[in-house]
Amino acid sequence: MTEWENLIPRPTSWFLRVRCRSCESEQIIFSHTTHVIRCRTCEEILAEPTGGKAKINGIVIAVLG
């Protein structure tokens, strides 16, 4: 590990590709969202804010970033 890796902080939040449990459609959401995120197709709740990291109700397919 180099000295720069210790000095530069890494992000703790990510964009996530999430699949809806009901209709199987995919959507990209933020891991620390401050609003309720609903599926664009069936209106199922995919993520709920908790004051920090969001509660993800869908299936996380990939972490982007």
> Beta-strand percentage?
35-45%
Mean pLDDT: 92
DSSP strand tally: 6
With strands numbered from the N-terminus, the spatial order across the biggest sheet is 2-1-6
Low-confidence stretches: none
CATH topology: N-terminal domain of TfIIb
**Biggest sheet details:** 3 strands, antiparallel
Helix content: under 10%
Kindly report how far apart the N and C termini lie. 21 Å
Q: In one word, what is the shape?
A: elongated
**CATH architecture descriptor:** Single Sheet
Content-based structural category: mainly beta
What is the H/E string? Answer: HEEEEEE
The number of helical segments is: 1
List the helices and strands and how they pair.
Blueprint: H1 3-7, E1 15-19, E2 26-30, E3 37-38, E4 45-48, E5 55-56, E6 59-64
